[in-house]
Design goal:
20% strand, 2 domains, Adenine-n6-DNA-methyltransferase TaqI, Chain A, domain 2, five-stranded mixed beta sheet
């Protein structure tokens, strides 16, 4: 089935516009403003914490964002980021947007915003035809409005949007549950190992400022590490080989991100194998933000053999419970002590040996064992919810091009 097309601006309820320029010295008080950070971090934007800016009466009207507005990235450091589309799902009574963003508000009598949000995320999006590349990749609002876009009837638009949004609703619900579980794990760690209100704390003696039996130990006493496998592009494949966990599997500031694994066809050492539950850490970072280097993740069960790439190391506990080690790195913020040890101009590199003299607080083995019994069910639930997210996202992404091409009718 082929759909009619229409010039995009014919679907506008009002003229599109760019947002506001507000220098950093002016920010801090006033009204919420959607920045590029929110746009790139959130496909569906809700009433989340944002920077505050002062507004005059004209700006309160001209730059106001409403539910179902489409927001397009005018500029990006990378080519694929230019024209990135997000949809506003919920906002404060008065929220505005910044100058690097284009706002499009559709006439909902003929255009379903969710449909066009998915359309611009599909392989059939025409945005790439208007991206220009100078110092940064970018699009212009004048070019965006002239694009010819698919134009099925409004009933079809709404049915397609409903099918696809059901997957995103499930994903968002699971993400909310994961956030609550991680907050619970954070509180547990803080209560036991920061506030020192662990089981039996009332009867525990304090010796030299620490509970009896606790001590600071260098990381070299707690775990060893295995370097990941170096590889060439010829050793990677789309269809065969062992799964290779790599830097893209580390979430910003820690945690595992599925479906970013590569496939490696070469040879690797036995100790470079990965098993479900292994702990890996990023040792390189492509930015100066230090969001990945020094941060860790627990490898989930991916159902087949795995190895790790050279931008990661595997941590092998020798005198510490793995769950306590991960919790200290992630929930205790210890990774933030490791990250500054990396150096480099454009690419950060962490020499694992540089961190091994750092001191980590270690409780008694008995208390670590007790902690594992409480923490592991929380972590298992997080991993299960994340797996459900990945399955839903994969199903949505398979359906998206088929629905947008009319191959599947709804």
């Amino acid at each position: 089935m082929s759909w009619d097309t229409v010039v995009f601006e014919k679907l506008y309820a009002i003229e599109s516009r760019n947002g506001l320029t507000k220098p950093s010295r002016m920010r801090g008080t006033g009204f919420k403003m959607i920045n590029m950070g929110e746009l790139f971090s959130n496909d569906r934007i809700y009433d989340i914490p944002m920077e505050l800016v002062p507004l005059n009466d004209k700006e309160k009207v001209s730059a106001k964002v409403e539910k179902d507005d489409l927001l397009f990235a005018r500029q990006s450091l990378v080519l694929e980021g230019a024209g990135k589309c997000s949809i506003v799902k919920e906002v404060s009574p008065l929220t505005v947007f910044e100058s690097h963003i284009i706002r499009v508000r559709l006439n909902q009598e003929i255009a379903e915003p969710l449909f066009y949000y998915y359309y611009f995320r599909s392989p059939y999006s025409p945005v790439k035809t208007i991206v220009s590349q100078c110092a940064q990749a970018g699009i212009r609002a004048s070019d965006l409005q002239k694009l010819r876009v698919a134009f099925p009837n409004i009933e079809t638009q709404r049915r397609i949007a409903s099918v696809l949004s059901a997957y995103d609703d499930l994903i968002e619900n699971n993400q909310k549950q994961i956030k609550l579980l991680e907050e619970a794990a954070q509180r547990l760690y803080k209560e036991w190992f920061v506030d020192l209100h662990f089981p039996g704390w009332e009867e525990t003696k304090i010796v030299d400022g620490l509970p009896e039996g606790w001590s600071y130990k260098p990381l070299s006493d707690l775990f060893s590490f295995v370097r990941g496998k170096s590889y060439t592009s010829k050793e990677l494949s789309d269809t065969s080989g062992v799964l290779m966990v790599n830097l893209k599997n580390i979430r910003a500031f820690g945690g595992y991100k599925r479906n970013a694994e590569k496939r490696f066809t070469g040879k690797y050492k036995k100790e470079q194998s990965l098993n479900p539950g292994d702990l890996v850490m990023g040792v390189t970072d492509m930015t100066q933000e230090r969001r990945l280097v020094g941060h860790s993740a627990i490898v989930p069960d991916l159902g087949e053999p795995m190895t790790l790439s050279m931008d990661l190391i595997k941590l092998v506990p020798t005198n510490i419970q793995k769950s306590y080690l991960y919790s200290t790195l992630y929930y205790g913020g210890f990774s933030l002590k490791i990250s500054p040890l990396a150096n480099g101009v454009n690419v950060l590199h962490l020499k694992p040996e540089a961190m091994m003299n750092l001191q980590m607080l270690v409780p008694t083995r008995e208390l670590m064992d007790t902690y594992v019994k409480v923490f592991d069910p929380i972590q298992s639930r997080i991993e299960l919810l994340q797996k459900q997210i990945d399955v839903a996202a994969e199903a949505r992404d398979r359906l998206l091009p088929k629905l947008m091409s009319g191959e599947i009718e709804v």
